[in-house]
Structures are given as structure tokens and as C-alpha cells.
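[scheduler] slot 2 assigned
[scheduler] job type: sequence-to-structure, two independent chains
[scheduler] chain ordering preserved from manifest
[runner] begin chain α
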Amino acid sequence: MTKKRITIPIFIPHEGCPNSCVFCNQWRVTNTVEKVTPESIKNTVERYLATANRAEKIEVGFFGGSFTGIPLEYQKKYFSAIKPYIENGFIDSVRISTRPDYIDTHKLEILKENHVETVELGVQSFSDKVLKASGRGHSSKDSINAFYLLKENRFRVGIQLMPGLPEDTYTDSIQSAMETAELQPDDVRIYPTVVLKDTQLEKMWREKNFTPMTIEEAVELCSEIYGMLIVKGINIIRMGLHPMDINSGTVIAGPYHTALGFMIKSRYRRKILDELIDETVKINKNSNSISLILPAKMKEEYIGMKRENILYLKNKYFTTNIDYKFSDIENPQILV
């Protein structure tokens, strides 16, 4: 099966960033210790192209910094390393990530000239109190303005959200998701806040001035956010940090799990089944047996890790026998 899009990642930790946000340590997250050069970019692209599966599109993505904040001479050097691969058809486009307040018409003209198709905005939250407490240095209005300017200039736009930042609440996170859904970005990444080593957030945590979400809290909250976005047809391309060596000491506290994305999706599917069964039980009060027909293409998500969703439902509806089978359907169905 051909993938729609393959992204070759180039990590540029903290490049172009005017300050360090309280939560950020890109050197540890990306496991990058050397400064990126045109030669290292070429080596990375060659390595990926040698092993890449077929895809409708192959893009190079610059992550970990604020690309449009990098001095122009370095931007040009990075783009020049990719240019030959675009000219010969091996690479289709470029993706960058940047700050919302580092977007203007002049910067966008440079991106257009260099085959940038997608711009990911590090929005993190649409709450100004959360942005201030996290040391972001920009406002929610900056995020909205940047989004519309990018769309006016026909870029694909991604939004990155970080529920659980300092001063954040469940209501704030849901509100941020609602505003994201209203904007209708092309892509969204959801990164529940974790405490990383050598950050201001670690200091706040050790001084008991910050309490991160538990894994359970993050799964519950993000499953709500996930549902709000996918029903709008918004593409979720990542939930949770990329896998890291847990023994490296990078993650100090918070909801880090290598399978967090799957756990969030699975919780969302469980809620769908729970509502479906609950309504059926209310209507058919004398029924002691229910058969579920589940979409085969999302089999694992509906069952859950170690069958936890099925076990949860059987425990909740212990007077009702629950059986299930799979079929090529879009949505789960129930038979009484």
C-alpha cells in the first residue's frame, strides 16, 4: 500500500527561537548534538531515499526550531541542500515548523520561492494566560493572524497543541481544541505536556509549582480533543512525544508513554461503544445479551491494549453478555 506522504525529518533544535519556553529542551527530545549543515541535510535525505517506501508525496521537514526566525543566509543554505532533489523529482516539497509571531508576507515569499508547502505553527494553546505562564512570548491573536495569513497565501497549515501547560485547565484545553477545529487546519499534532530534564518546567516541578497530568488524565482529555477534531475531518498526525530512551533521564515527569497515541485513539473508540451500549440497554431493559459488529480496519483501537476496552464494557454492563465480531463497516453496530 502506497503512503500518501513521507516526511524526511531534519532537526534544528532551538534554531531561530528568541527564547527558551519553560517546557522546551529540543536537544534532548531530538537527540541531536551537532549543528545542522547542508552536508548533514544531504546525508539525511540520501539515507531516507535509499530505504523509503513508495509514497504519493515525499517532503523534507525542518523540526525543532522556529525556521522563519533563522537568519536568512542559513535558511538559504538549508534550502540549497534540498534544491537538487526537488529539481530531479525525488523530493516534492518542504515542511517547516515555526512560531506564530514569526510569520509575515516577506517571510512567506521566501518560503514560496523554496518549495515550502506546509507550515506548522507552534500554537500550543489559545489561552493567553497559559501562553504567558509558559514563556511563549506570543499571543493567541498572533496564532490566529498567522494562520489566516498562511491560508491566504495558499500554504497547508499545521497546528501544534500542548494540553497541560502551566496554568492550563481542562476547560482551557477543550477551548483550544474548539478554536483549532473552527480554524480547520490541514494537520494537528497533540503533545500532552511532559517535564523534560534541564528545563524551567523541571525546576517548577521540583519546587512543587507545577503538577503535570497523569497518563490517565492525558488519555482522557486528549481523547476528547481527538474526537472534536476528527469529526471535523482534521488530520491528526501525531499524539505524544516520539519514542525516547526512557533510561536516558530526558523525561522527568508527566504523561509520557511510547503508545500514548494509540491509547488516546482507543479511549475515544471506547467512549463510542459505551454510548452505543448504554443507549441500547436503556431502550431494551430486559436484554441480557448484546452483539457488537466492529469496523475491522480499527480492530485494535476498539479492543484496546490487552483487551481493556472489552473488559471495561463487560465490567460496566456485567448483567449483559457482550460478544463482538468484525466487518468491513465504517461505524460500529449493535445487535440485541
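[runner] end chain α
[runner] begin chain β
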Amino acid sequence: MLNIHRQEYQSDLKEQEWKRLQRQLPAPSTKGSRGRPQEWPIREIINAILYVMRTGCQWRMLPHDLPPWQSVYYHHRKWRQNGLWAKVNQKLREKIRVGEGREATPSAAIVDAQSVKTTLVKGKRGYDAGKKVNGRKRHIIVDTLGLLLLVLVTPADVQDKPGGKQLLIQLKQRLSLPRLRLIWADGGYGGQPFADWVKATLGWLWQVVKRNDDIKGFVVLPRRWVVERTFGWLNNYRRLSKDYEELTDTSESFIYLAMSHIMLRRLARTNHFDN
């Protein structure tokens, strides 16, 4: 049941955000349904998951005015297994691109990786000697707006080049991107041999954006700042400040959900995206 008297949390879906998300969710199945009927509205279940992601709290420490953590975790697990948030992320990304006057699919993208620490929760992890981080690595590829195309989470000892290969192969297999021609990256992914592999295997042009070693201090690099900004967006969600998850699939699901939440708020602020 919906607790209409509870205090609103900052992580809650606003009315316009919920309307846009509801359009992207699969219709509830009623054919041959058995067992106990749905007790809590899906909107409240999602609000509870967003609360966990935004605050970083444990499932069992959800506030009592939100649905019981067991019900929330059940839906979280189900949606992780069926890839719901990756699908929602794709639909919202295409909607924003079209609203910006662009094609639904990009012609160029940017790749980068971020190493984050893990906790005492069991699961795959490794040591990134370059960043001196014991944990996991998030390999992401975004469009030129910084909107997520695909994420791959690996142990942190997976180097950028093999991780990048896995990411690009999955991108080719899982998404239909007929216009994609060019991918930018930094020097950690290697030089011409890697570019030749990308071209021969996947048919895309690979271009490294290099830093000028003569310039000291912080420098905004062309194209690379876009994907770095995306990592900055994700860091606003405390659950993503480290990797708290036992399964890498769960880590990826939370990242897709965070990007979906970011895009929902963007859509809700822009009236001409209503259709």
C-alpha cells in the first residue's frame, strides 16, 4: 500500500519524472498470475531503490515509511536479472537525443575507465597498480552528450586495453548503432595496433586524444572531458562512491539506474520532451 502521509525524500521521483518513467516500464502481467497480489506500488519500490542508491544506506536500514526492504530487494534483484535499467537507459537516451535535434543513435562515442575501491563484501576484485586502488574498474562508453551507451564492471586489475576490448565487443553485440563510426579514448588503450584491431574487428575508427606533456596542471582535453563529466554525475550517488556489491552485474545495474534517474530529471525540466 502507498504511505501517502510519509515525508518526501530528495531522492523520490517527482510526478513528471514518474510519468516519463512509467511509459518506459513493461506493463504488469496479469495473465495466469498466482500468489499474493502486489502490495506496494511500483513507484514506491523504485523510490526506495533510489533512496538506497542516493544515500548509500544498507537494504536493511531503509526508513520504515518506505516499503519493507525484502520487497524492495526482491524487485531490485528481478530487474537486475532481466536487464530492465539498461533498457530504460537506452530509451531515455534516445528520447533526449531526439529532443536535442539529433539522431536517436550516435555517430561518435567516448571510452574511459574508472577504478573504485570495494568493501568487505565478497566478490571479484583486483589491484590497479597504476591508480593504487584495490577494487573494481568501471569501463564505460558514452555519446557526445555524455549519456551512457554501455558499462562493464571488472576487477580493477583488468587493464584498460583488454577491458576496452570486452566493452566494445559487448557494445557491438548488444546495441544497434548503425551510425557509429568514431570512438575517442585516452592513451591507456594503446596506439595503432589497438586502433587496427577496432577497425578490422568492429569497423569503427579509433582515435586517441593525447595530453600535451609540456602543459602542467589540470587541462580540459577535447572529447575526454565529456566522459569524465559522466563519472562526475555518477559520483553524486553515494552507493556508487565505492563498489559495495557482491556481483558486478549489480554494480552495472545501479549505474544504469543512476543514469536513468539523471535523464528523467533532465526530461522533466524540459517541456518540449513531453511527447
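[runner] end chain β
[qc] chain β: Residues 105-243 form a domain with the Nucleotidyltransferase; domain 5 fold (CATH 3.30.420).
[scheduler] slot 2 released
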